[in-house]
Write a structure and sequence with these properties.
The complex is a heterodimer.
Chain A: H1 24-38, E1 44-48, E2 63-66, H2 72-82, E3 87-93, H3 94-100, H4 102-110, E4 116-121, H5 151-154, H6 160-164, E5 170-177, H7 181-199, E6 204-210, H8 214-217, H9 221-235, E7 239-243
Parallel strand pairs in A: 1-2, 1-3, 3-4, 4-6, 5-6
Antiparallel strand pairs in A: 5-7
Helix pairs in contact in A: 1-7, 3-4
Chain B: E1 5-8, H1 9-19, E2 24-27, H2 35-43, E3 50-53, H3 57-69, E4 74-78, H4 80-95, E5 100-106, H5 122-126, E6 137-139, H6 144-161, E7 164-170, H7 171-175, E8 177-180, E9 208-209, H8 216-236, E10 240-243, E11 250-253, H9 256-271, E12 276-281, E13 283-285, H10 289-295, E14 301-306, H11 312-320, E15 326-330, H12 339-350
Parallel strand pairs in B: 2-3, 2-4, 4-5, 5-7, 6-7, 11-12, 11-14, 14-15
Antiparallel strand pairs in B: 1-8, 6-13, 10-12
Helix pairs in contact in B: 1-2, 1-6, 3-4, 9-12, 10-11
The chains are: A alpha/beta, B alpha/beta.
Chain lengths: 244, 356
Amino acid sequence: MTKVFEKPKALCDVPLHYCPGCTHGIIHRLVAEAIDELDILGKTVGVASVGCSVFSYNYFECDMQQAAHGRAPAVATGIKRVHPGNVVFTYQGDGDLAAIGTAEMVHAAARGEKITVIFVNNAIYGMTGGQMAPTTLLGQVTQTSPYGRNAENQGYPIKVCEMLSTLEGSAYIARVSVDSVKNIRNAKKAIKKAFETQIEGKGFSLVEVLSTCPTNWGLSPVESLDWLRANMMPFYPLGIYKEK
Amino acid sequence: MSEKVLMKGNEAVAEAAIQAGCRYFFGYPITPQNEIPEYMAKRMPKVNGVYLQAESEVAAINMVYGAAGAGARVMTSSSSPGISLKQEGISYLVGSDLPCVIVNMVRGGPGLGGIQPAQSDYFQAVKGGAHGDYYLVVLAPSSVQEAVDLTMEAFDIADMYRTPVIILGDGMLGQMMEPVQFHQYKGRNLPAKDWATTGTNNSRKRNIINSLFIDPQELENLNIERFNRYKQIQEKEVKFESVNCEDADVVLVAYGTTARVAKSAMSRARAEGLKVGLIRPITLWPFPVQVFQQVARTAKAFLAVEMSMGQMVEDVRLAVNGLKPVYFYGRTGGMVLTPMAIVEEIKKISGGEKND
């Protein structure tokens, strides 16, 4: 009998801690599939960040480092500079990357650091219980924007891909989504392309993945996907923002 | 034997690191340590190493974390305000048991403080400047030559016990020039870094560098294991110098450049017939407790002198443990002590005019 579907080798055979309906699991799988297809598991080093994906060091079958909140691109820089032959990726959420880690993210891109950043944007702080994130949309209700995010008081959401694509060091910057089969397939292509960009030594690569947080959005998994399409996609348009 | 060369303290520390096999340096400019990154920027490309100027001290220490986790000999340097920024990363390095060397050429504080020499970061270095249960090995050179020798050894100590090591200098040590020799350093036998994230090469189990342990029992066990290593460090790595303590009535206690001022004060006092000795801790952690217990049997009093409002003096009091009075004299904010002033303090102690 031919196996038509199996767990990627790059994914550990352990239960994930993510909430039901969360799309982290899909994104983990896409990263693992890309690693398998490029046959780079043995030379890949991942960097986990702080947030829901903090335990991702338990989920990828490659060497892993766990970084302080926001510092993953700096940690990845250290690893890559010591072992330029390794493939180094970070897996970061929007709070980690676009708030506390803004400097590390921008400067890793500006240096053209040959690393790959998987940036999961669910417009909220998930792990700490649903507080406002730098990517929270205007009007969006969170634990710390209980009356809806208000531009006057809390400013505007950050568009990471648009910002990073202006930097010379950025070689591949794309925004994808995992809300539908079609978009999941595109997300996979982008993630693989980002790793290839690194392997070819072209510079910094980042894939922003629009993701859901049913638990903290207070919606069912299916409603969450609808909410993502109706609210996130118009503000965070999908596409390739930079390709060298 | 290598020839003597005249070098600035900062440059000598940088060269010593390279000679000890350090090939990765991540830094950020701050006075009075700029000659370290500047020297590294020049030298690292010539020895196939990496010098990288980070966007902040925060990023620099996290690059150190990544490089140390990847198995490299790695260093960063800064001065007081910059070291404060590195504290988060230092705690993570400790929590993940990663070896590295961190240089602090201390300047006056708090806040932006000043740029003149100070020793007011003693507590931060010795008592744990960041969160969690931990110590750092803290080495305090008092000359450029000693800075060279200790920097070389620092990498071995770091690798041996899997701990960050701090070289605690000051603006004076960093800026002054002295003749130095770079002796061929005989390295220690060190354990293999089989924990490093080098890529599994599909031939071993994956390595994980991590300081997060949700199970409290696991976290307690790891802390206890780390403190067992600290115990070994306390038993094997203590370094100090003691001079003229055998017949001394008053024993000066000073480290780093201040110890040189204290030595001059001791000579002047001896010339005036006062029986004065000196204990110079070279490792500030582990603190050389035993020598104080010994000297306290014969000395009448201790006088800690520091470029601070009184920080090491607390460890002197703990080490002397009430056996004899412990006095303090210090200048701070970048003011440097003079031998004359120290001699005056000694005379006040001898004359019973100084309160401990």
